[in-house]
Batch of 2 targets.
Target 1
Amino acid sequence: MSIFTFRGGIHPLKDRHEGKSETRDKPVKEFVAKTVCIPVDTHLGAPSVPVVKKGDRVLIGQVIAEAAGPRGIPVHASVSGTVTAVGKMQMMGKLPSPCIFIENDEQDEWVELTPLGDVEQAAAEKIIPAIQAAGICGMGGACFPTHAKMTLPEGQTVDTIILNGAECETFLTADYRLMVEQSQRVVDGLRAAMRAMKVSRGVIAIEDNKPEAITAMQQAAAGRTGVEVATLKTKYPQGGEKQLIEAITGKQVPSGGLPMHVQVVVLNVATAAAIADAVKEGKPLVSRITTVTGCVKKPSNLLLRIGTSVSDAVGACGGYSEEPGKIFFGGSMTGLCIPDDQVPMTKANNGIVVLNEKQGKSHVENPCIRCGRCVEACPTKLNPMELRNLLDTDKMEEAEKKNLTDCILCGSCSYVCPAKRWLVASFKEAKDLIAARRN
Amino acid sequence: MPIVYAILALGALGVVFGVVLSFADKMFAVPVDEKVALIREAVAGANCGACGFPGCDGFAEAVARGDAPVDGCTPGGAKTLTALAEIMGVEAEAGDPKVARVLCQGATGIAKERVTYDGFESCALANQLAGGPKMCQYACMGLGDCFDVCKFDAIRMVDTLAVIDEEKCTACGMCVKACPRGIIEMLPRKATVTVRCQNQASAKEARESCSKGCIACKRCEKACEFDAIHVNNGFAKIDPEKCTLCEACVAVCPCDCITVVAS
């Protein structure tokens, strides 16, 4: 079997098995919180418009905020119970996000669902509208509305769908557990997406440090039309969209282009599983698997309802084992640090990583020693050392000419830098400034 | 004897090159607008970028061509303006001299901290992450984006607050552009009374997050006899045209958020 990969990349936390060993063999447990706070603006696109008010009783799967704009997706209640408030909560964004607070009455009552039927039989043209109605967005982290990704512009064709099961990000095992335990759902979702987009080839890409997931997916894919499983080399950022496409198809996404420009669409495995639910059972996206790990007493993989607060999720894992210094949404490479543990879970959040104060301490930056390790590590073949020097000397235009905007912000350069320079942070700042200027 | 040949050969070469060069000088002469040199002398010369042209040279050429206005060099002030108007032979009148002011007094201990931010020192980045390091989303974050762009050494960061030295400020406006929260404003230098807060939050939130935040109580509005101060969007703002510097609003403000600059 050939093993696919890309040029560059790093092996973060190699001596600790990418920090995954604590939760790798923990089966998924469901946890339902007493109260949830469901943000309506976490997906990319216009925020959804709340349609419930304080005091309303809602059922699981009921639409509580309607889609706005072509990229919008509806938001569904993730527990049955009473709406206690339609208010605001400081999430990861600049300003507080509009949120709907629901108190769980523990009845677990679902609204009436209208399934499309078996993924192989369902009417192909109804699948994408069903995905939108189910409120599905990219569950790998970006939260880009999936129906918008699957609706191609006129004249654009796609020949391959790649399911991203690489999970190269440190600490996370949520996708791994999903593939091991619910491989059938993943393959069903892939088939539904393939039929909706009229694509004949579907590839499930998994890193070679997850042999159990590869076996499980191969068994589930056996006998299904056009579905294959590809083994990737374990390396960060193997799960980056563009790196994944390069590894599987050998094609490079052009600078500033999208995967569809090389006839590929990439979906996360968890997104595929959600698509399967939406088609087979008509179920909207109300829960997801999340890895809760780091300084918690019992690191686990939890099936959490959307809107569960971090403190409840950590409580379900026995609480903090040490005073938390920093808490990340997502893994430690690309994850975002949250302001406090009342922040609720979103559809895109695949991990909660708690670091203690010592681990969470920021590094002091030292001068560049020109070792060139960042150049070797960069998966997009940029020269981080040179770019940072250009930015430090206010030469933004020149940095732009050297393709700064192609940086995927994976953080590999910062990770390998022996001088602990804040490379990726400065690129993020510069990319934002460039984007603001272009608009 | 050989030395004579050498001298003759070199001399001959010198004459030939001299003729060629003097010929080329006449043939390929590029007319230089002497105005450019004069303008370059008259501008502030800090290469600050406030005019939007690539450095002072770029600005001088643009003015000489007529592509840039004679009042484009704000740091130069009235002196530069008169000089440029004279060179270009146009009429120009200097407006009121301006100064940049930070509309926030939320130093450490005054504005409450939301999180301890120990990330990359950039206001633009910190502003995007979970509402920023301070409770107030209209507060100065004190990470120095304005400090970085000031070419006149007029900004200092004191206790996570940007403080502008009005003596040194040339009103180039680079800090106004750099501030991701838009809390630095260009104001007339003579309008010494300023409301130092722009928070649009409710009075309760403003009170909770800062001890010197405007709570939109409108006491200043009532105290003002000249209709110069008004509360809009949750904060008070002074109209410098109408303000008579009587300081009646300063006396009634319960939050100390109106300040007077010593002139």
Target 2
Amino acid sequence: MTAGGITAEPPVAAAPPPSGEPGRLGRYLTSAIFLAPALFMLGVWMVYPAVYTIIRSFFGETGFLGHWVGIDNYKTLFTTSTLTTAIKNNAIWVAVVPAFVTALGLIFAVLTERVRWAVAFKTVVFLPMAISAFATGVTWRIMDQQDPGLGAINALGKTISGVFSPAGVLSTASPSTSVLQSSGGALVLKTPTHPGGIALLGLTGIAPDQVPKSSAQAVTPPPKPGDIEGVVWRDFKPGGGKVGVVEKGELGLPGVTVELRNAAGKTVKTTKSKPDGSFDFSNVPAGTYHAAIGAQTFAKPFGGFAWLGPSLIVPSLLIAYIWIWAGFAMVVIGAGLASMPRDVLEAARTDGATEWQTFRRVTVPLLAPVLSVVFITMIINVLKVFDIVFALAPESEYARANVIALAMYLTAFQGGENFGVGSAIAVFLFLLVIPVLALNIRRFRRES
Amino acid sequence: MAAAAPAMELPAPRESVALKIVRAVARGPLHLVLIAIGGLWLVPTIGLFITSILPASALASKGWWQVFSHPSVATWSNYDALFHNAGLIQALKTTAYIAVGNTLVVVILGAMAGYAFAWLDFPGRDWIFVGVIGLLVVPLQMALIPMFKLYDATHLFDTWEGIALFHVAFGLPFAIFLLRNFFVGLPKDILESARIDGASEIVIFLRLILPLGLPAIASLAIFQFLWTWNDLLVALTFGQNTTPITVWIAGQLREFGTSIDIIAPASFISLVVPLCVFFAFQRYFVQGLLAGSVK
């Protein structure tokens, strides 16, 4: 635009230049030629659209302008739940990501400062910066799968939880007859047992590879006066077999915790079954009892967290995003660290400061300008975040994972087709970055 | 700069072997922590690669890490199928056109404007430059709706040129900012003497500025190339049938579970090129990053 104005100037400088140097018009013309293409692009693709979008945000859904609606689009932005969720989520992003990224960058930069293989470490951590946020989204989607057999993070979780709360020996088993009933996780034999009696605890639904290795042919123990005996067994053999009867080819289930409960339902004795599945409660006082299989036998294995489900989707997105950007912070802060005056650090150490004091009182204050650049850059990036949410969040969770940029796209384009509200969201995003814009301009003016 | 520092130090007293061992042991935990962190940053990408070489049948029941106990299930057949997939080949070509084309134009226009702002004299120069800096942080969402309409009217919609031009415009503020700042720092007397010798500005630009500015231009080019190769949003908005690889993969995402034998290798293909560029020109990439940390 400026260029156009200059070239249109009247031919004043057609007069010969006074001292042989190129005339003023000639100089301006040269400047115009150098600038015109770039300014044309900026004018058509940035300035015109920005002005149009601001105006468009006060008009209705469709058409070049549509009808005037005043600030209704902005009202919609702050009252529609999917859009307010986007704003709230973006606030979480701003509160969490810049701080974490800057802190991790600082820690990594300081830790690697005096390590010989620092370059290898830095390359690895910086790598995600070269990869598209979209491909990273796909990568984390593979990592975050819920089934611990498929998702690496939950597989790790399963390994760890297996140490602290192991899965039961028969986590999938169910009773073979209706007299064995579930109660509070345990299976209780409803038929009462008395001393000298036999309790048959048949189970099914146990895959062959889940049957404990020490298992042997199930045996019904002979009754013994004063004792309550019984057997826990896999009430199934190839071909089916008869339900509720111990038959040849059916295996005993060893290591199962069997409880003896009195008439009030209180557990009075516990024991474990033998390889043939038999168990024995000796010297039981007269009375009515129920045999039961303890709840821990059926403890389910760790099923995995739903990282991409409704409650964890936002944290999962934050983790993936921090994973991408930590390398950026590390490299920028590392460069700041490398250009720091060594003598100040040496002086602090000579004066007897510990490593921590030197870090806290000298390194961090000297790095403050670099840290703030990283922090501000991350605020801007986070406000505009789009790709990773689009790729990592399943479409069914878009409403919960929503951020401003995604809301804008979904409102204006994919399905939404509402250019009025879409423009209002864009303007809102623009307003959020204006403080940084002002900061940039002030910094430039101070420098020049 | 970094090389000058050690030269200033006095020769260090020689350390005994025992002292070295003591120090290495004391710092063992640090190395372990760093190895663990490095693993955290490496594993997801390795996981993507291994997933990409497993057949769909294996992926339905097994995690990718189990390939280490069953290496025989690994296969290149996913890649084989993809390289016979016309859609993917077309998407890769489109990605290359967009990334290379827009990078060339940004470098040329950015260098011209950067030179004008750095070394030419014209009224309002600083004001216009402040305006360019102001455009640095404008979110591209501000342009999506108007350009969607304009592209529709001018038949630029769904063409790689349209997508590339959009990237040019939004890359220019950073390009001008980066190159102007680099050009300003070039030695003034070389330029002055060239002018006195009667060289035209165009000759000075081509013969002096471009060669001297090569490091900054390289940084810019790598930045712009990676940024646009990896783009999703712009292509998603302005492409429909003419789409780069990110959008092509995005089209498969809905069927994540069943299409993973396509999604994983295609994602890996999409990141091989940026990765190579990154490793080949890492130094310039980092320089560009440091020069323009606020975009």
